[in-house]
Amino acid sequence: MHRDVKEFFEHPCDDAYCQCYNIQREEYSIEIGHGRIEKRTCYLCGNSDWLSEKDAWKNLNGVGMLVCERTVKKTGKKSVEQRYFLTSLRDVQKTAFAMRAHWGIENNLHWVLDAILDEDYCLVRKDNAAANLSVLRKIVLNILGQVDFSDIVKAKKKPLLHKQHLCNKRDDCLDRVLQLL
Fold it and tell me: What global pTM score does this model have?
C-alpha cells in the first residue's frame, strides 16, 4: 500500500492532475530553530478508487503526502523529505494541522525523555526491562509536569529539568512529588 501511494504521488501534482484525482494542496512556511526555514506542502487525495487495498481500512477518506523542504539560512543548503499517510479526514487544512501536531508531540516527548532523563544512554535491554523503564520515565515526566513548587521556590513556573534538580537536592521537593503518587 505504501508503494502504491508513493507511486501515485511520484506523478507531478500539477493543476490538471490535482483536479482529475481530487487532490487538495496546502502550503505553508515556518521558521524553525537553529537557522532553518521549512516549507511544507500537504497533498490530500480524496479519490482513492485507484487504491487496491482501500477496503481493508475502515473510514479511509483519503491518502496524502507531506513534503518538507528545509533550507539552512547561512549556507542555502536544501533538503527535501516526503511522508505518505492514510487519513479519515477530508480537508487538507485539517490534515496538515493534524500532521504538524502529531510530529510536534512525538518530537517533544522524545526530546524531553532524552534531554531530561537521558533515555538514549540507557543500555538496559534484557527482557521487558527497557519497556518498563520507558513507562516509568513517562510517569516521572507527567508527575514533574503536574507538581507545583511555587510555595517552596521563588520562581512561579519551573522547567522540568529544574524540577528534577530540585528533587535531587531538596527533600521537601522530593516529598511533594512522592505525595502525587
Answer: 0.62
